[in-house]
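This is your field. Please look over both lines of this record.
***
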Amino acid sequence: MMKTMFRNIGRTLRQANPVVGLLLVMAGVLTLAVSYVCRLTSVNALQMGAFLLIVAGVVAYVMLQKWQSKY
């Protein structure tokens, strides 16, 4: 079951545009900026969510660039 789930995620990512990774990074940075402006810097769940968005965006961008490269 887990194999098919990861296989389906891999297929979906291969068809995605590299912009998806950048959008995830931007969403994470925007979340951090809004939490700072609203003085919610002590909310760990919000900070962790933003961190996970940024990491997922970087990983997705690198993977998509690797899969779509000719070299």
